[in-house]
Amino acid sequence: MRVLFTVFASRAHTYNLVPLAWALRAAGHEVCVATHPDTLETVTATGLPVVAVGERLGMGSTSQAKGSSNHEVLSRGLSAPYEEQREGGWDHALAELTMACGVRYEYLADQSYLDDLVRFCDFWRPDLVIWDALTFAGAIAARSCGAAHARMLFGLDLINRLYQDYRALRAEQPPERRDDPLGDWLTGRLDRIGTRFTPELEEELVTGQWTIDPLPPWIRLPTALHHVPVRYVPYNGPTGVPDWLAEPPARRRVCLTLGLSMREDVGDATVSAGHLLGAFEGLDVELVATLDASQVGSVTVPENVRLVDFVPLNELLPTCSAVVHQAGLGTHGNVMVHGVPEVIVADPFWDELERGRMSERHGTGVCLAPGDLTPERLREAVLRVLDDPSYRHAAAEVRRKLSEVPAPAEVVPVLEELTARHRRG
């Protein structure tokens, strides 16, 4: 069968798709990736065929959306627990969906992206479209050509949680208050492929015919959706391994990373590099900090810190006794795969704070919210996860449990069966 992956111009989101794409290709299926022109080089380096759709997205410090920062455009803003935000009821849900449809979703896959994607699907005729969970154009293009389609999550399924709250709260409103920004937005997209909007079609386009989930069961929101779990397999991009990694560390090694998304896609992280590096002054550890010059700035770097612009976490983490990270899925996935005790310095961009607290409850580390982050508290948290063996044991158990989740190659037959069931053309 032919499988098309769709994703917006983000290296982190692209890397999330690569292991499954290669598992399908290794099983003999044709695979292609559709993305913004910005990401062509990134996808080409993975060895997968790629087609450009839409115009350049220009992810970085300033978005195209009315001069807003990408943090404002893309973030779900979970600086407070979702249960607290939920207390806003219908007004909160309506405001969130209005913002999401009018700015966030439209920004990531606008009409030029959709039109180009539909034209390519009409030409290439995929049997299955797997779309990054923020790239709804993939679902609409699949509908246009009759392909089956599935979402690929990149973290907690906040979109479905908000969508289900929105539907339930909307049904409780008097008719004059039942505004429907989501239906209006989808209607405009469906009009472009000559398809009439219906409430039944709405849920399929928002949540997919099924959902592929790389998160382990203990870090997952309750849902009634059809989930296909897949083991997270690290893909850190094409890179060499530095010589110093071949030498055993002279003292306990700690990794500090803020991930790709905050550096490349958002450009305005709220976590201070000074707070992070200052916490390690005088500690009897070797800190490997994957920060570039823009993140470090003029901060004084302690003598026990090795600054590296990039090093593959899949190779670095097995040498580490602990890791300090922001809980992006790519980083967090690598941490869980290698069973490393963690300190999560959550920068609440999407689900980092919520997932960090889930990990803390699971015993694998300590989560520090932005308001709690000081050099003293970070230092205390790092020493705690280094010295308390319970964190190592919990992290090792997570690693063991991950081996029980189906690997991408084991998921391929499931996708074949579901495609045959849902494909219309």
Describe the protein's architecture and organization.
The chain has 425 residues and is of the alpha/beta class. It has two domains: 2-231 and 405-422, Glycogen Phosphorylase B (Rossmann fold, 3-Layer(aba) Sandwich), CATH 3.40.50.2000; 243-402, Glycogen Phosphorylase B (Rossmann fold, 3-Layer(aba) Sandwich), CATH 3.40.50. It is 45% helix and 13% strand. The protein has 19 helices and 13 strands. Strands 3-2-1-4-5-6-7 form a seven-stranded parallel beta sheet, sandwiched between helices. Helix 1 links the parallel strand 1 and strand 2 (30-35). Helix 1 crosses helix 19, helix 5 (89-108) crosses helix 8 and helix 6 (111-124) packs parallel to helix 7. The longest helix has 20 residues, at 89-108.
Please state the structural category.
alpha/beta
Q: Report strand order across the widest sheet.
A: 3-2-1-4-5-6-7
CATH class of the largest domain: Alpha Beta
Largest sheet: 7 strands, parallel
Q: How many independent structural domains?
A: 2
Name the average pLDDT: 89
Unreliable stretches covering 5 or more consecutive residues: 61-73, 75-79
Terminal CA distance reads: 13 Å
Task: Give the name of the CATH architecture of the largest domain.
Answer: 3-Layer(aba) Sandwich
**What is the number of E strands?**
13
Number of helices: 19
Shape: globular
Cα-atom radius of gyration:
22 Å
Helix coverage percent: 40-55%
CATH level-four homologous superfamily name of the largest domain: Glycogen Phosphorylase B
User: β content, as a range?
Assistant: 5-15%
By CATH, the topology of the largest domain is Rossmann fold
Family: Belongs to the glycosyltransferase 28 family.
Pfam families: EryCIII-like_C, EryCIII-like_N
Organism: Streptomyces lancefieldiae
InterPro entries: EryCIII-like_C, EryCIII-like_N, Glycosyl_450act, Glycosyltransferase_28, UDP_glucos_trans
